[in-house]
């Protein structure tokens, strides 16, 4: 088992790198889970924006509009000095400047004077506040059309904006409408697998493909078949240890419910197939690329590229249709599709089960294709040598 021990020796040299990546991965995953959980569990609050209002009308309607905007924003009344307001917008002291012209109240709702809004170019806050302003004025317009006078219409519009509607989340998925914490951990596994395995496998193959070492191995008493078998066993040992450690991450992160969940076998199968995909890509990169700088560059391109395109860093529902069409040709997309289904549903329908197994088959087919391509590349390189 001399060759096997040689592989293990090189793997040991990369042990610090692997542990560091796992530690960093765990920290990032816990942070992302914390942010996402806060966003899901938090109570909705309207965004508060700093607004400057120039009220040249001083009417009941203009005061009602100011009161309405003040409910959800920081409103400052100003004298209308354009130079100061322009500077304040430039330095982001205010995100929005609203000028209410003289005669606006008396001409409402029949037209006449219109509001003038100045906002930071390209800012979402400006459009958000345009919507708030239009919403209030439309409510006043509706109440007046219903027969209420101006003060009553303004009072009812303000009261309506302060109304809180209780919302009950219907638990149709069995997870309380939320993704379990370990689902976010599994979401980021492809980046960990591809990053670590591409580097480690490529480093090991580069070391054993060194001309001097290769000649010594060819001259040794160990047959090429035995050398290949020991190499395969060493890589299998590396992959299974790495996969086993990654499956302990839910326990380390405090997600013990993962081990009692109904989808644990599907999670294990999905992650194991993703490991096979990452390993196949790593072998292909290791046979094609030489040199540490080139390996690092290709590893970063593959891991980050697939992560951004396939829903690792950005959830699939936020990706455009064009990006999704491209990402469907990549195995990480099908891993993430399966992971999202498992995380959002305690019980899978027949259609969902078909989607899960379709994802499994596509990942397995991609891994097999990569391994076959690697064998072809390895055979060509052997003929060249």
UniProtKB/TrEMBL annotation:
GO terms for cellular component: plasma membrane. This is ABC transporter permease. The chain crosses the membrane at residues 15-32, 188-208, 229-252, 264-285, 297-316, 356-377. Its main location: membrane. One of its GO terms (molecular function) is ABC-type transporter activity. Pfam families: ABC2_membrane_3 (PF12698). The keyword Transmembrane applies. It is a multi-pass membrane protein. Keywords: Cell membrane, Membrane, Transmembrane, Transmembrane helix. Residues 19-375 form the ABC-2 type transporter transmembrane domain. InterPro entries: ABC-2_transporter_component (IPR051449), ABC2_TM (IPR013525). It is found in: Cell membrane. The keyword Heme does not apply.
């Amino acid at each position: 088992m001399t060759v096997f021990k040689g592989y293990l020796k090189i793997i040991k040299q990369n042990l610090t790198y692997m542990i560091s990546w796992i530690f960093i991965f765990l920290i990032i995953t816990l942070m992302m889970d914390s942010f996402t959980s806060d966003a899901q569990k938090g109570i909705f609050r309207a965004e508060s924006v700093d607004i400057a209002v120039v009220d040249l009308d001083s009417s009941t309607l203009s005061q009602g509009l100011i009161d309405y905007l003040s409910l959800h924003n920081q409103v400052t009344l100003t004298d209308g000095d354009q130079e100061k307001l322009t500077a304040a917008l430039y330095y982001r002291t205010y995100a929005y400047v609203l000028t209410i012209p003289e005669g606006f109240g008396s001409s409402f709702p029949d037209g006449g004077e219109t509001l003038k809004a100045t906002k930071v170019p390209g800012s979402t806050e400006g459009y958000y506040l345009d919507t708030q302003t239009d919403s209030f004025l439309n409510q006043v317009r509706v109440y007046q059309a219903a027969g209420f006078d101006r003060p009553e219409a303004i009072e009812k519009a303000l009261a309506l904006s302060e109304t809180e509607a209780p919302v009950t989340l219907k638990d149709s998925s069995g997870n309380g409408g939320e993704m379990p914490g370990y689902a976010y951990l599994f979401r980021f596994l492809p980046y960990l697998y591809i990053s670590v395995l591409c580097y480690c496998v490529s480093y090991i193959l580069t070391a054993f493909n060194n001309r001097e070492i290769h000649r010594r191995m060819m001259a040794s008493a160990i047959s090429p078949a035995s050398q290949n078998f020991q190499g395969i066993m060493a890589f299998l040992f590396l992959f299974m240890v790495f996969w086993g450690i990654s499956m302990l991450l839910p326990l380390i992160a405090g997600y013990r419910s993962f081990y009692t969940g109904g989808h644990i076998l599907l999670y294990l199968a999905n992650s194991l197939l993703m490991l096979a995909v990452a390993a196949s890509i790593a072998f292909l990169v290791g046979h094609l690329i030489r040199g540490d700088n080139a390996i690092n560059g290709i590893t970063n391109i593959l891991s980050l590229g697939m992560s951004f395109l396939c829903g690792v860093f950005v959830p699939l529902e936020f990706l455009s249709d064009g990006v999704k069409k491209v990402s469907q040709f990549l195995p990480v997309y099908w891993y993430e599709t399966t992971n999202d289904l498992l995380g959002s549903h305690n019980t899978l329908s027949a259609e969902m089960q078909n989607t899960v197994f379709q994802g499994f088959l596509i990942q397995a087919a991609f891994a097999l294709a990569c391994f076959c391509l690697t064998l072809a590349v390895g055979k060509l390189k052997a003929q060249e040598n």
